[in-house]
Design goal:
Blueprint: H1 2-28, H2 35-62, H3 65-93, H4 97-111, H5 113-142, H6 146-167, H7 175-204, E1 213-216, H8 226-235, E2 240-242, H9 243-270
Antiparallel strand pairs: 1-2
Helix pairs in contact: 1-4, 1-5, 1-6, 1-7, 2-3, 2-5, 3-5, 3-7, 3-9, 4-5, 7-9
Length: 289
């Protein structure tokens, strides 16, 4: 549940900040008449993301057990790739998002207000698709449905509330610290999803070492116990793991976290710290790194 709350919060907050920037810029440039188009684009992105979730469920239910395992493994790999790309892309480009979005809106307004809907759609759809893929992978890896779904909904709801409060100037957040530590936590969660994909591929016989167990604490922590469920829900790890699962987890998490923190520190030193405000016309996305 925590892992999906985290992804819902992170992706939802990014989408909320992007929408806030677009709204604030349209209002400030006296183009409020385009707000309806903007919300149309946002609604379309949300709708397509939800539709993808239903498609994933329908496909999974229509497959045989073996095919479903393969589908879950491949989808998990895709989710890990997208989340990893998102984390590093935001770490590298967050300071320039506002300028980029302003430029896209200006070009759209020179074309038509309909183009504003496309800008909003493209800005939000990425977050939506990433959320759905990661949520699906989380459901499959944890073996639960209700808790991950509730976690993601709560995370998205929290993000929406924070986005509205920041837009209205009611709260100020240290977005740099928030995105830094949620990014680091997501790397660990993504490592667990990657471990799950390896596990599925081993069961299918696509990868070797299914019986080469490296860790087995099932006698102390049962997989269906409260602690076992908690660990699986937090970081997608299980009481019993093979050597290949452990090696792949370490090979992903350690270098990815190292590179992530190096990139955060490098960007922080190479760029002057921007002023952090909470006015509606100055939504503080630049402070996110």
């Amino acid at each position: 549940m925590f892992a999906n709350y985290l992804i819902g919060l992170r992706e939802g907050l990014e989408a909320a900040l992007i929408v806030a920037i677009l709204i604030a810029y349209l209002v400030r440039t006296q183009n409020s008449h385009a707000l309806g188009r903007l919300w149309t684009g946002v609604a379309a992105a949300i709708g397509i993301s939800i539709a993808l979730g239903f498609v994933l469920i329908l496909v999974d239910e229509s497959l045989s057990e073996r095919a479903a395992e393969a589908f879950a493994g491949v989808t998990s790999l895709l989710a890990v790739g997208l989340i990893t790309w998102m984390i590093f892309w935001m770490a590298s480009h967050a300071r320039h998002i506002k300028t980029h979005l302003h430029g896209e809106v200006d070009k759209a307004l020179n074309t038509s207000t309909t183009a504003v809907a496309l800008v909003a759609f493209l800005a939000v759809i990425r977050e939506g698709l990433e959320t759905v893929l990661f949520l699906y992978a989380g459901i499959k890896s944890s073996g639960e449905t209700t808790a991950p779904l509730i976690g993601a909904i709560l995370g998205l709801a929290t993000a929406v509330v924070l986005g509205v409060l920041m837009y209205r100037g009611a709260v100020k957040l240290n977005l740099g610290a928030l995105f830094k530590w949620t990014g680091a936590a997501l790397v660990i969660v993504a490592g667990g999803v990657l471990r799950y994909a390896v596990h599925e591929f081993q069961e299918l016989g696509w990868l070797p070492g299914e019986n080469a167990v490296a860790i087995d604490v099932s006698s102390t922590i049962a997989s269906d116990s409260v602690v076992g469920t908690l660990i699986r829900g937090l970081v997608n790890l299980t009481p019993t793991m093979t050597w290949l699962e452990v090696i792949i987890w370490l090979a992903y998490v350690v270098p990815t976290l190292t590179l992530f923190f190096w990139l955060i520190g490098h960007k922080g030193k190479s760029s002057p710290p921007p002023a952090t405000t909470h006015a509606s016309e100055n939504v503080p996305v630049e402070a996110s790194r």
